[in-house]
Amino acid sequence: VVEASSLSWGTRIKGFIACFAAGIVCSLLGTFLLWVPRKGLYLFAVFYTFGNIASIGSTVFLMGPMKQLKRMFEPTRLIATIMVLLCFALTLCSAFWWHNKGLALIFCILQSLALTWYSLSYIPYARDAVKKCFAVCLA
């Protein structure tokens, strides 16, 4: 990664933190804007989804864009990536075309769950640990 980027490691870390923080701020702002009369649903869907996209995009500073895309579509995280992208689209569709606040909230929750599962794919054995934890809790 160091050879493929003209940015120093410190600059890339700062870019990652700034982009990730902007993503969190946008998601929180979207949540607060949900309760604005008439336009709240649209603002919520856009800000929440954009915030999550910025959070995922923050890793581009660490890996680079091509490596990020390649890793997103590796077999181990392909389904998680598809679910995240599908939830992004369905959140926006439920707000702009279907005008259904309940569906938008459901898709935002699914968006968060899919992003969590996607993120866990980068931590060795994290998904297995979560599966075992749920198996123990449900047994």
Automatic annotation (TrEMBL):
One of its GO terms (cellular component) is membrane. It is found in: Membrane. It comes from the Eukaryota. Keywords: Membrane, Protein transport, Transmembrane, Transmembrane helix, Transport. It comes from Mustela putorius furo. The chain crosses the membrane at residues 15-35, 41-66, 78-98, 104-123. Belongs to the SFT2 family. InterPro entries: Vesicle_transpt_Got1/SFT2 (IPR007305), Vesicle_transpt_SFT2 (IPR011691). The keyword Ribonucleoprotein does not apply. This is Vesicle transport protein. PANTHER family: VESICLE TRANSPORT PROTEIN SFT2B, VESICLE TRANSPORT PROTEIN-RELATED. One of its GO terms (biological process) is protein transport. May be involved in fusion of retrograde transport vesicles derived from an endocytic compartment with the Golgi complex.
